[in-house]
Predict the structure of Peptidase M20.
Amino acid sequence: MTTAPAFRFSPLWSAASVAVLLSACGGGSDSDSTSPPVPQRPQATQIINGVPGVDPLVANAAEKIIADAKIQAIAAELNTPAGEKARFNQHMELVRIASPSRYEHRMAAEIHKRMLNEWGFNASEVKTNAAGLLPGSDVQIVDGLPVYNACVEIKGSYSSSPNAKAYNGQYPKVLIESHIDVVNPEVLPPESNPYLPIRLQPLTEPVVKTPQELAAIETQLQFDSNGRIIEDAQYAQARKWFANEKAAREGGGVRIYVPGYSDAMSNTSALFTLAHMFKKYKLQPVYDVWICGTGGEEGKGNLAGMKQLYGFDQDLGTGSNPLNFVTNFGSEGGGTINFTGSYRFEMKFKAPAIPGSGPNPVEAMAATIARIADIKTPSELRSDALKTTYTVGQASCESPQLGSDVIPSCTLLVDMRSERTETLNEVRASIEPTFVAGMTAENQRWGQADGVQQAVSIEQMWYGLRPAFVNGDTANLALQAGWQAARAADVDMAEKVPSGSTSLNDNVPANTGVPTYNWSLGSNAVVAGTHAFWEWGTKGDPAIETKRIQRALTAVLIASGYHLADGSVIEPAVGPIGARTREVQ
């Protein structure tokens, strides 16, 4: 077990010790004796040389939770052949449901059905619905579309305790989530055929290069009319697990081709197994625990699922945290605590209302790109600025209508990225004016004023925001819980916290101020093709998946508090009022 550096003793802990001494010496008052005890809470510590300090209260809680009889019983069940088989079947049955970002309603509907019929939840515990609404949030629509989250609640004991605190009637909650949307297919298949084929190919053969090559693979997993996997010879082949890619190649392993195999359904499906175990074994947290499959993480999803959960208003750039989440755990990462933010603009240059020889959208878009190319980022201008980048991610034009040579419109997608909001704002302030400047330059080239019928016009089609966050040297309580739970479960024990940054659902809670940490839950021998039409994976050691689920349970229960099977209680690691950057509207 790693020795925790730079631990600072909790003021709450010290105060409680003094109170005990005063009472023993006769120094306590009657009012002191009748007040409820102040809970001892661990404190945020420092990260030194990449290693987070871990408060002894967190370390002690991790040891007790991992040894708890119910947690041990869950691990034992998951490690049985039946448990491993159930997880594989669930993964395959869910991942084949086409779920493009912002069109996840079919996936959410299947998850809601299983929550009620298979995973032990009742209707009052399912917090989301088919309409995409989330009672209690002040953000329901993102980019003009509903948000298809799938969330359940495990009710804790805190709300019924004396002097329980709430924010606008919302008692504290710990969130653990993973996304249910995929990049491919980009277009939702018809209702008559909502499923994606799951094709199998020996690892010894070359990876496909085209959709046609993928479609030519005849070996597939089969499913019955209820969507349940058929256990035939192909199934037996796909279910074989391997320790790594070398072992899989030598042992007859296959590629399981299906979009979303690893990003993120191998994690999300395991998360729902965790939810099932919560209910089956009647785990009793102190704070409420929410388990969510979230929509809108990929592509132009704009983190819609998390923006709904955290009441994040992208126009204001702030989160109200209306449901009062006090800690956040993402199940689609590798322990990253810094998050790259981005601004994304989709701008459409439109042909003049009165066609003729004159301004055209192609040249207006080209003029804009030329201006953008001359812009220097803050990190190019100053050595002390964090790395800031931008790119013209896509430039495309509509084809002329039949019998015409007029191009109706051209679309430009521009992406700006940085770890800090201030540098993002700086590069945005330089780039955003070029959209109009390019249009104006093209109109002026032909002697036309902006806004007249003979001029090119511009329209903003879409704006995307992923808020940035830099953690610094603080070991927040979510990080401590995740770090120590990995050691307790003996899995994924990193030597240091990653120093780089990534872009995940976690951007939203971290930017809102909620302690945030992430991990992976699934187990694969090898995966490739993330976000591609040819995404594939090969099944990994199921015992690793069990340990990762154990780790997640342990970390979540450290944060939420937990009633151990022996009757004792682990107090929540964090206070009952979550952080926010905006009050509820």
